[in-house]
Amino acid sequence: MELSGSSQIFDAAFHPTADLLATALISGGIEVWKLPTAGDDDDGSAADDESDVVLSLSYHTGACRAVRYFGDGRLLSISADQSWAIVGEDGRVAHHAQRAHSSSLNKLELVDEFTFATGDDSGVVKLWDARSPKAAVLSWDAHTDFVSALQFAPNSRQLFSVAGDATLCVYDIRNAKNFYKSDDQESELTSLAVLEDRKLVVCGTDEGTLLVFKWGLWGDCSDRFPTQMDSVNTLTCLRDGRTLLAGSGSGEVCAVSLYPMRQLGKISALEDEGTVEGVALRAPVSGAQPAAVYGSNIGSDYSHRSLLATFAFSERIVLWDITDVEEALASITLQQQLAESSSSGDDDSDEDDVSDDEEQSSDGSDGAEMTKEAGGEDCSVGVGESASDDESDAVDEAAEDEADDDEGDDDEG
User: Rounded CA gap, 171 and 401, in Å?
Assistant: First the structure.
């Protein structure tokens, strides 16, 4: 399924329960789309003409660069006009913090139902409480270039950022003095994925390499994984906690597994755009019911599905139903875990598993063989090797079957 905004799209976010997608526009506006009724077409994809804009907002004077939904449905946005704002489910602006930064705001990350972080073009990161919007709770000036990604780790209460100055920063949100900064990684860091359960942080670069940091060892990356992508513009972790979706400069979204590190296959593509600048992912929501949002009764037909929104810096955003793809990838990573467990004996500590797998991936040696069916195909891959053509084909086939518009036919193995 494809949506066309009124101007270039900078960011997108799904509503937590309703079938709504908010898009941030270069014009400064925000458009909230109602997703069409699921399964309108014979091929299972939704009909484009069922989509419409249920809310248009235009309170920012500069480009709207990011949007996020709080769990209760409030919409948070940031802008190049140095401000952030919160809109309630009635469509009215509840807070609009002017001059929140001295530079244009660039990135946004939610911490909890009231707290969030913002990063700007000068490298400054601030923590805010929506209940006291007049001043930031904490502020850090650690980066020397624009903030390219932010992510929060709830268990450790740490905030992570990467920037154009080729560094990773880690902040303790309980104490502004407690923060760490990595060495120069010699390549612009463009994206970020925090895998807190696995004690790993993965950074994407403008050269297509993934940098892996072990938890607490923030000085330098412990491993480098060259991918087949020319750049890694965005990273998102799936629910299995081991598989990443990477948006590339070549217009593809690829699945990448960690330890063993390998590129599993292509999930979707924006071939006409030439690049993927951002993605939004919504996991299935249990018990979601139709609700009145922005004065309209909005359904929840997609609440049991995994949805992926992909966009470049254009007016177009493409939605994909990746439910079956996610299940296939989860099965593949489960087989990886079983192979790792078998090879490591009775030692099941995460640190030892990471260390063993890192040795295999770093020296390129072959590991234990594993076999998995995905998308109706048999896949056989050695731990620590690059993904085989059969495995990539299987992932591609599952993605092709689940695509929500005719562009899914482009995702052939």
Answer: 42
pLDDT at 372 over 50: no
User: Who has greater pLDDT, 311 or 329?
Assistant: 311
The answer to whether 235 and 193 are in contact (CB under 8 A) is: yes
Three-class SS state of 299: coil
Name residues whose C-beta falls within 8 Å of residue 282's C-beta, 6 or more positions apart in sequence: 14, 302, 306, 307
What value does the mean pLDDT take over residues 137-155? 96
Q: HSE-up of 374 (CA within 13 Å, CB side)?
A: 35
Coarse DSSP helix, strand, coil percentages of the chain, rounded to the nearest 5 percent: 15, 40, 45
- Edge-first strand order for the sheet with 209-214 is 189-195, 200-205, 209-214, 223-226
Distance in angstroms (rounded) separating the CA atoms of residues 264 and 227: 11
| Calpha distance 408→413 (Å, rounded) | 12
Highest mean pLDDT, choosing among 30-44, 63-77, 246-260, 395-409: 63-77
Query: Given the DSSP bridges, would you call strands 223-226 and 2-4 parallel, antiparallel or unpaired?
Result: unpaired
The gap between the terminal CA atoms of the chain, to the nearest Å, is 21
CA–CA distances in Å: residue 371 to residues 52, 234, 382: 44, 29, 9
The tokens of 308 are what?
């992926």
Output the pLDDT for position 302: 75
Nearest to 81 by CA among 132, 137, 24, 130: 24
Query: 168: helix, coil or strand?
Result: strand
Cα separation, 382 vs 227, whole angstroms: 17
**Lowest model confidence (mean pLDDT) among 49-53, 322-326, 353-357:** 353-357
DSSP state of 252: E
What would the two tokens of residue 359 be?
């040795």
Closest-CA residue to 34 (of 19, 12, 45): 19
Determine the length of the chain. Answer: 413
> Cα separation of 220 and 140, whole Å?
20
Q: At residue 50, does pLDDT exceed 70?
A: no
